[in-house]
Amino acid sequence: MARYLFALERMHTEPDESNEANDYITDALVQAENAVMFEPANDFDQLRVKADILFCDLDSTPPTRHVLAFFADLVRLTGDKPSPSFNAERWLSRFVRCGGEWVVKAGTPWIMWPEDGRCDDLLAELKARGGKPAVMNLIRSLAAKEA
Q1: Is the separation of the CB atoms in 54 and 66 below 8 Å?
Q2: Is 136 helix (H, G, I), strand (E, B) or coil?
Q3: Is the torsion defined by CA of 106, 75, 101, 114 positive or negative?
Q4: Between the CA of residue 63 and those of 23, 69, 113, 116, what are the distances in Å?
Q5: CA-CA distance, 82 to 45, in Å (whole number)?
Q6: What is the Cα–Cα distance from 54 to 114, expressed in whole angstroms?
Q7: Geometric angle at alpha carbon 78, from 76 and 84, rounded to 5°
């Protein structure tokens, strides 16, 4: 975090004397942003810094890996509960419609998906919304009803 704040300060205070110096500072800032995004946030203040990094340029889309790192922290800091917007039944239904399948082996639920990319957004949603425990519990329940 300190490295990011230092690089951000330099970017805003250094004179723009050369493209080379500006490129160096920009590269340092990007590296520091990456380091912050992959270091787990300890509290909501640190999570806020991650949000500041993600959304500092409203004209660009943040990297998916940064968005997922942000949501992983958000889920963890809110007690590993799924988002109120997440619905396990709706998610699993769409997952199956997109070619995904589930099975329970030796009491452990498994999900499988095709490699054609149709489930990629759903898998990202599962991670970002903290829905995996709810989906695994639903699969256990469905398998018990089928037995």
Answers
A1: yes
A2: helix
A3: negative
A4: 20, 10, 23, 21
A5: 21
A6: 30
A7: 115
Contact at 8 Å (CB) between 91 and 125?
Answer: yes
Tens of pLDDT, residues 81-133: 899 999 999 999 999 999 999 999 999 999 999 999 999 999 999 999 999 99
CB 132 within 8 A of CB 76: no
Beta strands 108-112 and 101-105 are: antiparallel
Cα radius of gyration (the chain): 20
Q: Is 32 helix (H, G, I), strand (E, B) or coil?
A: helix
pTM: 0.70
User: Which H, E and C letters describe 67-103, residue by residue?
Assistant: HHHHHHHHHHHCCCCCCCCCCHHHHHHHHHHCCCEEE
Distance between CA atoms of residues 103 and 79, nearest Å: 27
Q: How far apart are CA 92 and CA 34, in angstroms?
A: 32
Distance between terminal CA atoms of the chain? 51
